[in-house]
Each structure stands twice: as C-alpha cells, then as structure tokens.
Amino acid sequence: MLAACPALAAGCRAPVWARSGHAQAALSLYHDDRAALLDFDLDERLTMADGGTVSLQWAGLDTPPATPVLVVLHTICGSGHSLRRFIGEMRRRLGCVVVACNRRGHADLTLTAPRINTMGFVADLNEQLEAIVERRPHSPLYAAGISAGSGLLVRYLGEESGSSRFVAAVAVCPAYDIPDGLRHAHPRYDTYMTKKMIRFFLEQNHEVLSRVDGFGDCARARTMVEFHERLYPLAGFDSLEAYEEASDPMRVAPRVETPVLVLNAEDDPVCSAKNVYRHLPAMQQLPRVLIALARYGGHCGFFEGHRASSSWSDRAVAEFLRSQGAAE
User: Fold this and answer.
1) How many separate domains does the chain show?
2) First to last CA, the chain
3) Is residue 267 included in any domain, yes or no?
4) What range does the domain containing 309 cover?
5) What is the pTM of this model?
6) Which distant-in-sequence residues (6+ apart) come within 8 Å of 274 by Cβ?
7) pLDDT level of residue 328 (50, 70, 90 thresholds)
C-alpha cells in the first residue's frame, strides 16, 4: 500500500509558516472559497419515505458507462458546493464521475420533514446509493467522507459490513465517535462551530422544527457536545442512548470489511488527535483499515509546498483510490 501511495510515505510537508492547525484552517477556508464554482451536470432531488428531501449533485456524467463513481459525503454544515475544490481535484486526478450526496437541509434544500441529524441518516444514504446505482449500473462505487461525512460513511460501512456497495473508501479528519469525539475541540472553534450549527440547523429551520420537543434545549447549547447530547428528539429518537446507538460510527466500526484509508492531523483543532489514540487499539484490529496521522494539516487542510497551495490529503486520497481501481 505504501508503495502505491507515495504521499503516505512522504507525509504532509507543510511550510514552516503553515505548521499549525490555525494556519491550516485559514488556508482551508481560503482555498475552498477561491475554488471555481462547479457547473454540476445534474442536481437530482430525492424524497424520502417520511417526506424529507436529499439530493445528488453529479459531475462527469458524460463519461463512459463503466467509469468509476466517487461518492462524496460532505461536512457538518456543508454541501457539494462547499466541497467544489475537492470534487474538482478528484475529477482532475482520477477522471472518475463524482457525485455529492447532500443531506437534509443542506445545499439549497428546504427541510421538508421535522427531522435532522448532523451526521446524516444511513437510511437516507442507502436511498441515495440506490439512485446512483440506477443511473450508473455499470460503475464501481468508491466513497470519500469529509469531517462529519466520514462519520456517516463509517456508520454505513459498519452497518452494511460485507454488503457495502463501496469498493474502497476514505475518511478525512473524522471525530470517530458521538459525542465524545468533540470534547477536545479547541474552545474557540467549539464556540464558533456551536453557534454555526444553531444557525444552520435550528434558526433557518425554525418553522419546521420549533414544535419538536427539545428544540429550545438544543438552541441553548454552548458547546458541540451539548448540542449533540440534546439533539436526539430532533433526530427522531426517544433518548440520547437510542440516538447514539443508531448514529455513532464506532458502535459498528468493528464490522467494517471495506478497505478504508483514514486521514487525521496531530494539530487538528476540531477533531483532536486524542480521538485517534483513544480508538487506535480497536482500529488496529481491523485488517482493512489504514490510519495515516500527519504531524501538520489542521482540520481538512493538509496544505503543503512553499506557498501552501496544494493539498497533501488530495494526493493521498487520489493515490489510495487509484490503487483500489478508482481511476478512469
């Protein structure tokens, strides 16, 4: 694997001035904001059984029928649009079809059912995958989960185990478990992200969610941990225990059979490297999971080179997926 993925052997070579999680976070925002807008080939909307709405944003539909498809699962408040830099890089490096699976209330989707989950629902993802296979029946499927999207990815892989639709997958900067994975976030990032989640999930969906039990408690959360501990009624569960049992990736991670590359950074201010070490003994028991822990990279940054203009994680992801057959 290391021979097929030289980026993993080399590590992230961040310039001296970008060797901190804060610098990498700023670089991530800078490069993502400057990325050219993607003109998706198709924005496909799907209605779930409870009336909820999700979508698929496709890029590369004009490729041959057997071209591999990379399924991208976005960040906690993100979408296919916010990951346009990453999607463009994967198209350029692999030549594959890329489809972003947007969760309820993300992208430009109206929340059409009173049910949200920051990590998404595996049942929704299964419906999205059904639609992907229906449109591309001859294409092998691969997956990349970014931040919170990696939680949904691992949850799916564990639940489906040997029946997973994915040939291989990558999890970039996971927090590992709910909600303990966010307990070690840097206080300033924790405060910022909590306020952002309240605005994104609650305030903009006030009309749909405000009558659900627990809305007020969740809106008064002061940390990401508090937000997730109070989220369960809005996610459709009777208790925190039931919510975690149905949503926590680490509850089912031991059942993962799909080859998975996990990327983390020692200086990640959001998903602390403490999570890596806490779960490392269990993860090392999984023969098809490879964890790469970079010294520098922040949260979903990993920018390197003299000007910190290229992403080490993009290279690592592309090399790993290519080694698993994902290139055109």
Assistant:
1) 1
2) 20
3) yes
4) 6-185+257-323
5) 0.96
6) 184
7) confident
